[in-house]
Design a protein that fits this description.
Elements lengths: L14 E15 L2 E6 L2 E7 L6 H13 L3 E2 L5 E3 L1 H4 L2 E6 L21 H18 L3 E3 L6 E17 L11
Parallel strand pairs: 3-6, 6-7
Antiparallel strand pairs: 1-2, 1-3, 1-8, 4-5
Helix pairs in contact: 1-3
């Protein structure tokens, strides 16, 4: 839960991933295709102030293990690791926007750009070491993201700062 009580509000913020199950997805910058995948997950990633390497690692664990693909009975029981699908990671600071009031988002809830870029790069490095096909967007670029969402299936994941969960999933 987000709590905003002045400058100390950052302690409740979380690394964010908006994941979409896709049959294909791509990212273009200035007319050039810089990343593309076939069936798998497109993940938009928002980094917040207290996120760190452990948070990024835990987010990757969840992305690879999150069961969003159909099994032979059509139930969402298979993960990206189970299916061997592709992964496209796209940095998107607007996921961390404060939209509670007014008609314009605020971005004080997003990590500073240099730190967000560093942590996004760390997440990408971990992903490439752990998964066979990983493509990315470009941090800070004006990107054109195209996708064919399957289902549609879209989930919002958050990982608490430090990479620990407040509960123990079964």
């Amino acid at each position: 839960m987000l709590r905003f009580c002045g400058p100390e509000f950052h302690h409740d913020l979380r690394m964010i991933a908006l994941l979409q199950r896709v049959s294909s997805a791509s990212v273009d910058v200035a007319g050039e295709r810089i990343g593309a995948i076939g069936p798998g997950l497109l993940v938009l990633v928002g980094v917040q102030p207290l996120d760190d390497e452990r948070t990024a690692g835990r987010l990757l664990e969840r992305l690879l293990a999150y069961r969003v693909f159909g099994d032979p009975q059509g139930r969402m029981n298979l993960s990206l690791s189970d299916t061997g699908g592709d992964l496209l990671l796209v940095p998107q600071f607007t996921l961390a926007a404060d939209t509670r009031k007014g008609n314009r988002p605020g971005f004080s809830t997003a990590a500073m750009p240099a730190e967000a870029e560093r942590l996004f790069g760390h997440l990408v490095g971990l992903a490439r070491a752990a998964h066979p096909v990983v493509a990315t967007g470009r941090f800070g670029a004006d990107m054109r993201v195209s996708l064919c969402n399957e289902g549609p299936v879209t989930f919002w994941l958050e990982v608490p700062p430090g990479g620990t969960l407040p509960y123990h999933p079964s």
